[in-house]
C-alpha cells in the first residue's frame, strides 16, 4: 500500500510540474515581440475603425446642421448650428411613405426569391451525380465577365412585358452568379453521409434540400441575404428605367434621388422645377444640396443599419466557410 501511495504521489507531482511548466512556457509570456505586435495591431485596428466611422458621423452631423451654415464647411462629428430643417424637407415629401413601403416590399421579395432559386440551383450543381453541373456552372461564371449592356437589358425587359410592372424588380434578380458559386461551394463541403442518410430514410431531393441542406447553410444564406438586401434597397436605376411611369411603383431611393436632383438644379440656376420632389425642394428655405444630400443619405441608410447587427455574427463565418472547399 505504501508503494502504491508513493507512486500516486510521484505521478501527481509530475503532473503538477508538467502543468506548471506549460503555464510558464514562453508562449504564455508577454514577450517584447508580443507586446509590440499587440500594440501595433490594436493601434492599426482603432485607426481603421475611426476611418470607417468618421464619414458616417460627419454625414450625420451635416444632416443635422443648418444648410446655409454647412456651405462654410469645417463640420466634424458634431453639428455647428443644429437644425431639423433638412429632415423636415425630406419627410414632407408626399410620396415618401408610399415609396418607403414599396422599397421594403421590393427588398423582401427580391431577397426571398433570390435565396430560394439560387440555393435550389446551387444544391443541384453541388451534387456529383448531376452530369451537367460543370457546363451550367461555366455558363453562369461567364455572365460575371460578359454583360450585354444597358440597352439590351432594357429591350429584354420590354419584350418580356415587365415594363411598368412590379415583376421587373425581382424577375431579373432571381439568380446571382456570385452568390450561386458561393453557396454551391459551401454545399459541396457538406458530408455526403448526411445526404445519403436522408435518402435512406426516404427523403426525396426537394425534401433533402429543404430540410437537411438549407438549415446547414444558414450562415452563408445570411451573408447572401445581406448582400442582396443592400443591393436591392440602394437600387434606384431599375425604377428609373422600368417603372418611372407608374407612381405607385416608385421606390424610396428613386424619390430621394429626384429630390436631390431638383435641389441641386435649383441651387445652380434658381429655377423652380415641376413635380412633387421639386415642389418640396422649392419650399426648402435655408437648406442646401450638401445638407439635403446628407439627410437623404441617413434616411436611406438607417433601415440597413438596423438590419445589419442581426446578421453580423453570420457575416464573417458564413463568407469564409462558403469560400473554402471542405
Could you describe the 3D structure shown?
With 326 residues, the chain is mainly alpha-helical. α5 (96-126) crosses α14, α12 packs antiparallel against α16 and α14 (252-269) packs antiparallel against α16. The two termini are 54 Å apart. Mean pLDDT is 80; it is low at 1-5, 271-284 and 322-326. The chain has helices spanning 2-23, 32-63, 67-70, 85-91, 96-126, 133-142, 150-159, 167-170, 177-188, 192-200, 205-216, 218-234, 237-242, 252-269, 276-282, 289-323. The radius of gyration is 28 Å and the shape is flat.
Topology:
Layout: H1 2-23, H2 32-63, H3 67-70, H4 85-91, H5 96-126, H6 133-142, H7 150-159, H8 167-170, H9 177-188, H10 192-200, H11 205-216, H12 218-234, H13 237-242, H14 252-269, H15 276-282, H16 289-323
Which features would summarize this protein structure in a list?
mainly alpha; flat; disordered N terminus; disordered C terminus
Count of discrete alpha- or pi-helical segments spanning 4 or more residues: 16
Residues in helix, %: over 70%
The Cα radius of gyration reads 28 Å
End-to-end separation: 54 Å
Overall mean pLDDT: 80
Which spans have pLDDT < 50 for at least 5 consecutive residues? 1-5, 271-284, 322-326
Shape: flat
Number of strands: 0
Largest sheet: none
Strand proportion:
under 5%
Q: What is the succession of H and E elements?
A: HHHHHHHHHHHHHHHH
The assigned structural class equals: mainly alpha
